[in-house]
Amino acid sequence: HAIMKIRNEIIRATYEFFHQEGFVKVDPPILTGSAPEGTTELFATKYFDEDAYLSQSGQLYMEAAAMALGKVFS
């Protein structure tokens, strides 16, 4: 119980800090339609009858978001 409250306060303070510093919260996708950064071993699944893969890196999405939005965090 206490750990959950402490964790909540840390997350809240982190979000507040980034907000005050002008950052935008971005949530990169968890499932992707292709392998990021040329990786070969992927966890495959179906998503709306299409192949989807568990994303191994949100870096590519964050780089694009940073170019569009400036300061971002996830």
From TrEMBL:
Organism of origin is Opacimonas viscosa
Top-level taxon in the UniProt lineage? Bacteria
List the InterPro entries: Aa-tRNA-synt_II (IPR004364), aa-tRNA-synth_II (IPR006195), aa-tRNA-synth_II/BPL/LPL (IPR045864)
Put simply, this protein is called Aminoacyl-transfer RNA synthetases class-II family profile domain-containing protein
Question: Where in this chain does the record put each Aminoacyl-transfer RNA synthetases class-II family profile domain?
Answer: 1-74
Q: Which UniProt keywords apply?
A: Aminoacyl-tRNA synthetase, ATP-binding, Ligase, Nucleotide-binding, Protein biosynthesis
Q: Fetch the Pfam families from UniProt.
A: tRNA-synt_2 (PF00152)
Gene3D superfamilies in alphabetical order: Bira Bifunctional Protein, Domain 2
